[in-house]
Amino acid sequence: MSLAIDLATIWALIIAFAVFVYVMMDGFDLGLGILFPWFPAKADRDVIMNSVAPVWDGNETWLVLGGGGVMAAFPLAYAVLLPALYTPMIAMLIALVFRGVAFEFRWRAQRERNPWDLAFAGGSWLAALAQGIALGAILQGVQVEARHYAGGWWDWLTPFSVLTGVSLVIGYALLGATWLVMKTEGSLRDRAYRLSWLLLIGMLGAIVAVSIATPFLHVQYTQRWFAWPNIIFTAPVPIAVAAVTALLLRALTNKYDYQPFFLSLALFALSYAGLGISMYPFIVPQSITIWQAAAPENSQTFLLFGVSVLIPLILGYTGWAYWVFRGKVRPERGYH
Amino acid sequence: MFEGWDAVALARAQFAFTMSFHIVFPAFSIGLASYLAVLEARWLLTGREVFLNLFNYWLKIFAVAFGMGVVSGIVMAYQFGTNWSVFADKTGPVIGPLMAYEVLTAFFLEAGFLGVMLFGLKLVGPRLHFLATLMVAIGTLISAFWILSSNSWMQTPTGYAVNADGQFVAADWLEVIFNPSFPYRLVHMVLAAYLTTALVVGAVGAFHLLRDPHIAGPRVMFSMAMWMAALVAPIQILAGDQHGLNTLEHQPVKIMGMEGHYQSHPDGAPLILFGLPDQQEGKVKYALEIPKMGSLILKHSPNAPMPGLDTVPRENWPPVPVTFWSFRIMVGMGFLMFGLGLFSLWCRWRGTLFASRLLHVFAVLMGPAGFIAVLAGWITTETGRQPFTVYNLLRTAESASPLAAPAVGSSLLAFVIVYFVVYAAGVTYLLRLMAQPPHPGEAGPSHEVPIRTAGITPAIEGVTQ
């Protein structure tokens, strides 16, 4: 595992960062929709929606940056992966359409049973499932011939990809539940605590299951994780997962406000690092490395210039927007 | 299902469908974001409550339209990869960075400040709130800059080389971004967005004036919209003419399609007003034409020679019937807008701007004209580029993903069903909002009110300055 820092590696890190920010921010956002069935009361749902209404659009923009970034920096990977993941991608886009418009539409509907609540919940479930399935399909490898996807129509659907799909739904729901713990009060928050317990257990089960299944997919993954000397670098990952889990259990027991959400994010970050360790240096596992997919150098440098200036700026004003809407959402008084 | 269909034709249909349904929202949002910034600025400068009421009234409409633009835009961002993977691979090194810059400089700016713009007036105060409104408005314009640069490069590619893998590579980024048709297309589209919004605002104002000519909010919005239409419609006709001359220089075959010039005219081309272009026979049937006028408009000389499609191999012909008719629809709408602007100036001069029912009915009927013109214009420019995705360099048929027809057909069917459901609802809610006149003490979308209802929200106490 050579760690030569070149343009392609820098870009791989940038894309990885953009996708992770997306998972972090839209994760709790989708999680709220996944949890909708457990919060049937209209008043609770209004509060849940108001807790993310000011920021959801910015959260979703990271997904556009991830896609656009791959097309710009690794066009070959973009051209291979999207046809390979055709069905889950179309399903995700349609799901995002439904849940995105629900933010405005649900206030406008005049019916008693609000159809846009269903659109928000269903869209969130489907989008999370599709993203998780896409992740599993990428991990298990994609067939490529002569710069084209060469696999079958249903290659993306395997027991492993269903496992990663369900895992991501559980993980996003955990982020959503701990977000509610942070942003709400009263009976709504109590219910979010109880759900957080269950979802944490579910998430740990998912992490274990995916971790056991991944090395069996390809011998390359096994070597990456267990061969000497790599194990020096990979062993800390499961140890850190155990440590974060212990802290998270303590935070939930003591009914802390902020810690559950941020520790859940840490759990995501560790799982994500594990994925990175497995995949590097492939961008399309078993077929295309980041160097083979890299755009010509002048495309990568031209965009790198903008990214290095603009991403810190974006993080700055996005942070400001979160700061403006900080604190608890109250149904009757707004933010104060 | 869809066995035996042409996968490329289905992919093109999908692009046309999703693009058409998407573009109307950015066109409306670009204009409306600027209009909202003007309204808020006037409120801050004058302190007159009518401007705050109008701001809050149009803000609710903006929120719905913007949300629909965002979700249909994400579909577009991924469609290059799903249905046009060869195009994405070959043009990614050039177009990819332009679109990524759009995300970095525009989408984040809009999304980041939208929350404060919609919900934050009481939290951050009027000045910071105005900054947020301004950022959203600037974001929409930056977005237009990058996406039109990408599209213009596909129409008039310059500043590129081709590498060993058959990919386009930027040789000179400035030449890529500021390619020959870009300045014209940018001006034409931004003016179109402003006109589209002015016509919608004017139609809503006129609708309420027909019911009650003395109501304050609609009077102000109608007057502002008619100034905009009267000023911008003639400028847009000039900009369109310049854009056409630029197209003649760089994409002559597109002009042949727009004009229906199947035959060459060595001593002056006519202007075909109407007719039925027949692609098989290669001529325009039942043509109603003005002799020499085509050369006069395009070459500023009645006897200038104009080559026709008979000088172009058939496999490089655009679909003339579509390009020809969509162009005429766009131009027709443009002249109707010009007429509305003139009529409003006449009424203003006579002092009957708020009293002339004829003007108000005309303005209401013209409400959708901007959308029709935008769609027709995009159909003209995109079909006129056919059969290429990158003009003369990459064929549409060679740009598509290696997918079977059932895959593309199924996703197309799914998008059609979903868009019709979402659109029907969205348009219903927008019209419902517009059917209410703006009220004194109009509340914006606010966290103060737990349950937003359609139309009127309970008034909240005004913002202290």
Automatic annotation (TrEMBL), chain A:
It is found in: Cell membrane. Keywords: Cell membrane, Membrane, Transmembrane, Transmembrane helix. It is a multi-pass membrane protein. GO terms for biological process: aerobic electron transport chain. Its main location: membrane. One of its GO terms (cellular component) is cytochrome complex. The chain crosses the membrane at residues 7-25, 76-98, 118-140, 160-182, 194-213, 225-249, 261-283, 303-325. GO terms for molecular function: electron transfer activity; oxidoreductase activity, acting on diphenols and related substances as donors, oxygen as acceptor. It comes from the Bacteria. Belongs to the cytochrome ubiquinol oxidase subunit 2 family. PANTHER family: CYTOCHROME BD2 SUBUNIT II. This is Cytochrome d ubiquinol oxidase subunit II. It comes from Bradyrhizobium zhanjiangense.
UniProtKB/TrEMBL annotation, chain B:
One of its GO terms (biological process) is aerobic electron transport chain. The keyword Nucleotidyltransferase does not apply. Its main location: membrane. It comes from the Bacteria. GO terms for molecular function: electron transfer activity; heme binding; metal ion binding; oxidoreductase activity, acting on diphenols and related substances as donors, oxygen as acceptor. It holds the Pfam family Cyt_bd_oxida_I. This is Cytochrome ubiquinol oxidase subunit I. It comes from Bradyrhizobium zhanjiangense. The lineage of its organism: Bacteria, Pseudomonadati, Pseudomonadota, Alphaproteobacteria, Hyphomicrobiales.
